[in-house]
Amino acid sequence: MHVAIIGAGVAGLVTAKVLLQAGHDVMVYDKAPDVGGVWSRTRRYPGLTTQSPKAQYSLSDFPMPKDFPEWPTGVQVQEYLAAYAAEFGVDRVLRLGTEVTSVQPSDGYWVVEAGGTTELFDRVVVANGVFCEPAVPAFPGLDEFTAAGGKLCAGTEFHDAEGARDKHVLVVGYGKSACDVTVPISEVAASTDVIARQMLWKVPRRVGGFLNFKMLLLTRMGEALFRYLRPRGFERFLHGPGNRLRRNMLNSIGSVSVRQFGLRELALVPPGHMEDIVRGAIGLATEGFFEGVTAGAITVHRDRTITRLLADGRPHAELSDGTRLPADLVVCATGFTQGVPFLPAEIQARVLDERGNFLLYRQIRPVGVPGLYFNGYNSSFFSPLNAEMAAVWIAADLAGELPLPDDADMRQAVVAQLAFMDEATDTHHCRGTKIIPFSMHNVDEVLGDLDVNISAAVRAGHWINPVNPRSYRKITPRVLRRLAQRPVPSPYETGKTATTANER
After folding, report:
1. Which CATH number fits domain 2-132+338-493: 3.40.50.300, 1.10.540.10, 3.20.20.330, 3.50.50.60?
2. Is the pLDDT of residue 502 over 50?
3. Residues 453-471: what's their mean pLDDT?
4. pLDDT band for position 131 (cuts 50, 70, 90)
5. Which of 17-21, 77-81, 418-422 shows the lowest per-residue confidence on average (mean pLDDT)?
6. Torsion over CA of 395, 401, 404 and 407, rounded to 10 degrees?
7. Helix, strand, coil: what percent of the chain each, to 5?
8. Which residues have CB under 8 Å from 130's CB, separation 6+?
9. What CATH topology corresponds to 142-335?
């Protein structure tokens, strides 16, 4: 089949690699000039690193270089993904610097408009990423603020810490990206203030200074500490008779974090307990952030927002408590929107619910929209692995070898999953695209559909040891061999082959 893939980040690249290996004709579009998605040089902010260690953020059959640090930088991850594309021939099907502006169903095909050209495809995979467009607040007074010399930008638009040298800088947000970018800014700025609407729990990279956090949260046991929609085996014990033990395990991490970072002395203890972490954001503490607060290089204004920007002699910002701060530069690390503006309204109405949540079975397939898939809409601690297994799932469905429920049952499953995530994360699931902390549950469900998995012994080992994506390296070739033994149905069972729009 002729397949269009929108996005050349992790999910787009791995989907292209798997579908090429399955014998399909693939075209990958991305408006950036390089591969990488969030790791592209056009989006990297200073201080950017992975949130998971390199072993857990690697693709199963392409480990990261041994000389990379445990938490690779944005530059290193982009280099790794470019090398992956070259290794598996994906670089030959890339159309970089090409923005997709329209994807329309037409007579059994998909008409894709990109870069001023139009082409027909049998299938489309949306892999533009759940962090595709920064969400920047609309602050009153912005025009006057910028006229007075003030500058406001999204975190992904701030690429060089030198842009903050000797300036008064406000960083809006308290998530990982906000804390990451704050540290290099604080090293050169005249002042660095963080405006945090709410406090979030931060997990130390090394709990107590020695125990790597991956031993706690990147194991199947760590995932089981959070109740899933369909608890299995030992999970039933943890959320039943063992509930007190489970809570103590989680909240002890919070107690250690408070002591390790001196949060009480800094008046930065989040409300609630560490077990509430999934209801906000499971964030890894940025090295140097709390040290900078302790040293006075960083000031955190907790439970505050910017109410307006001012040009009172020089650029200022007014906070919700009436405080006014000098603000030559305002960097907004305030999250992202998940958008598919290239899809027509009638397709978006099937893909999204009334709240804007994505209705995707297994985080992959919209119900009632044949020929359209999503990948990368399963953001997790193991995003590359989740994307890789989703790519294999897509390959199997393209071959007609994936037994699925009917549309009504799939929709019911999607709605139930969203309702559960609403409760589990207090609706903080990025419009249905974030599956943290249930990463491996998603992998298991996807592989369950494929009737394949790694050995039970290896899975058992992942209960107490960090999940290693390399353990899954034989899944893709195993499934592709199985698919190769069966004839692939022609697109929509018509016997047609895809043509360009001009040929048509």
Report:
1. 3.50.50.60
2. no
3. 96
4. confident
5. 418-422
6. 80
7. 35, 20, 45
8. 336, 338, 376, 377, 379, 430, 433, 434
9. FAD/NAD(P)-binding domain (3.50.50)
